[in-house]
Amino acid sequence: MRDIVTAIIHSFPAYLLLGAALYFVLVYHGKTRRGRVHEALIGFSFAVTALMLVHGAYVMPMGGAIISGVAGPMFFASYLGGPIAGLWAFVFSGTARYFVGGDVAIVGIVAQGLYVFGGLLGRKLAPADEWYRPPPRALGVALLFFLALHSLSVVWGVARGSLSALLTETVLLLVSYLVVGASLGLTWLIIRHVGTLSGVTRENSLRGQQLHMLYEEAGVGSFRFDAERADFVHDQSFSTCMV
User: Fold this and answer.
1) What is the pTM of this model?
2) How many CA atoms lie within 13 Å of 145's alpha carbon, on the beta-carbon side?
């Protein structure tokens, strides 16, 4: 159990990285969909996160199944960025899962691909008014999809005889469900907060530019605070106005 807790703690930096990467995409590349390049940037953000989560996952002693939080990034990669973003995430996470190995590696890779499909399905069943802020119903679709898919993966593994011992490890099975469910919820929450924060940043930048233009047109100049110098910096027209 200590190894599982350690793996969960080590997964948090991956989610922090996801938040930072999405913030960069939304602030510096805008919130308007800009085609394949924009979708690829979103996909790459989720792909790196998924790679880190699979790499640091807890590997079960029976069958080589893993407990990881990769489901959230896989689902919302395609939900936000479409097929291109989902493909990026799947290539990275699927490759990582292949090298982790185990008797049920193919089950894990297929499940990851299905999560990407689930994200595309979620776009149709629970579309967002603002594409970068998935609504609560999108999380509901993700959780329902996860319950069905995760249960199917366990049944498939047991049917093949790879996870027969897992049924006796009720705690591990329960933890796997909790981790995947928490992954979906945490990823959704991060995306929502990043969307809000990036909106405030872009709005403040726009208002600052408008105010600067207004001051210039009015001939009263403008000023700003320089944190390094710990002093206000005035432009020439403002200085002239103060004379």
Assistant:
1) 0.77
2) 27
